[in-house]
Backbone:
């Protein structure tokens, strides 16, 4: 058992968090136990909460990378925080099971990748704060959370998420606002895409099952792909969804940025990692219509920054900014 100490100034009633066992699956909206990374949660006060998580030593999706030196995936860190915030909606903000969380924006800023270079499982300490909270008719309606991520006592980075919380009946009206009929669920759709995916190593992957792009082509300075929606993927679609989940599009943005860097600059996907990702979700991304992923070098971003647009039926449903950093200049000898 690992016990993670909390800072004295912000410790709750017990002052410690444990990684002895995972939390209940329903608190983090996961179906498979293997997909639950959160191990403990504690409310400190009205504006502060803490959690512990453990990233697994091996994972079909999060552990599948060509990058060297090897490190735990920053998007696995994001998933641990996402689970923490789902749990916070229930335990910190008293949201009921008859509500839905809808992400409006999310940012992930990895300031130090070296703590992620651990062979084996990695324990995370997550320090959450409420930057903004709004209620409607006595229930939480919107929360902006900021989460500081630590591993081995060192800060890995900061993740911020702006989430709306809606009752099921309101959610259903939102889902139908741009549709003529009910949306299909992912478990009713065929799992075999009909496009041509790039070789896995060109998007930093070893397994073809984890590639989420297909039919890539150049269009001027842009790289244009179709989103390859893996509805039968055991991690990305751990349970049935009525839309494309935001984390799937974040993965597509990462892969598109790696592919652009490889095709235009000759940069090996295995030598890059996402140091920053910012996402804005404008509409629900539907499962029954193609989504085009358009990636360009960012004109105003530092380093290898890209802007990624997700277009469906002629309209943007999401846009993202990605900044890739080199694995070769980020403390390569610091794994333990």
Residues:
């Amino acid at each position: 058992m690992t016990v993670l100490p909390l800072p004295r100034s912000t410790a709750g009633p017990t002052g410690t968090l444990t990684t002895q066992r995972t939390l209940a699956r329903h608190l983090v909206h996961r179906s498979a136990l293997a997909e639950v990374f959160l191990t403990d949660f504690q409310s400190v006060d009205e504006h502060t909460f803490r959690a512990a998580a453990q990233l697994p030593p091996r994972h079909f999706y999060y552990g599948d990378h060509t990058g060297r030196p090897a490190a735990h995936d920053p998007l696995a860190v994001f998933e641990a925080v996402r689970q923490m915030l789902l749990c916070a909606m229930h335990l910190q903000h008293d949201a009921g099971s008859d509500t839905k969380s809808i992400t409006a924006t999310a940012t992930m800023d990895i300031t130090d990748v070296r703590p992620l270079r651990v062979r084996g499982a990695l324990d995370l300490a997550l320090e959450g704060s409420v930057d903004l909270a709004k209620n409607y008719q006595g229930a939480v309606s919107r929360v902006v959370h900021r989460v500081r991520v630590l591993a081995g006592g060192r800060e890995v980075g900061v993740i911020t998420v702006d989430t709306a919380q809606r009752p099921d009946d309101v959610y259903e009206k939102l889902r139908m606002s741009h549709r003529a009929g009910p949306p299909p669920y992912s478990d009713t759709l065929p799992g075999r895409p009909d496009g041509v995916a790039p070789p896995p190593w060109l998007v930093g992957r070893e397994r073809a099952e984890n590639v989420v792009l297909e039919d890539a082509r150049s269009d001027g300075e842009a790289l244009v792909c179709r989103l390859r929606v893996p509805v039968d993927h055991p991690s990305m679609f751990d349970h049935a969804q009525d839309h494309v989940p935001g984390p799937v599009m974040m993965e597509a943005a990462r892969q598109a940025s790696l592919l652009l860097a490889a095709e235009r600059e000759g940069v090996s996907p295995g030598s890059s990692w996402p140091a920053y990702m910012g996402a804005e979700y404008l509409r629900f991304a539907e499962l029954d219509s193609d989504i085009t992923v358009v990636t360009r070098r960012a004109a105003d971003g530092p380093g290898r920054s890209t802007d990624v647009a997700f277009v469906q039926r002629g309209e943007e449903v999401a846009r993202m900014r990605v900044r890739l950093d080199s694995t070769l200049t980020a403390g390569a000898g610091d794994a333990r």
Observations:
- The chain has two domains: 3-167, 176-329.
- The domain at 176-329 is CATH 3.10.129.10 (Thiol Ester Dehydrase; Chain A).
